[in-house]
């Protein structure tokens, strides 16, 4: 096996990881936020009738009203579906370019 081929594989793998890792990180943060919501609801059930219940309920409403979401340039959601959205976008514009080349 040629050494340049190995370098190409390593370079391609690192580029792929640099593209995917932010989406994985955003997805993990979103799942942690969902776990936090679940923990808040469990804590509310345990604190029934106490003075902290209203504060916990208010915090739960605050977290529910502002879901964890990351967006890139207000166009692409940074979550598990980002790769599919990018692929869809590339295919869409490839179809448009193909139609314009047949027109002229």
Automatic annotation (TrEMBL):
Domain of life of the native organism: Eukaryota
Protein name: Uncharacterized protein
UniProt keyword list: Cell membrane, Membrane, Transmembrane, Transmembrane helix
Organism lineage string: Eukaryota, Metazoa, Ecdysozoa, Arthropoda, Hexapoda
Topology term for the membrane: Multi-pass membrane protein
GO terms (BP aspect): sensory perception of taste
UniProt source species: Diatraea saccharalis (sugarcane borer)
Localization per record: Cell membrane
Matches recorded under InterPro entries: 7TM_chemorcpt
GO annotations of cellular component type: plasma membrane
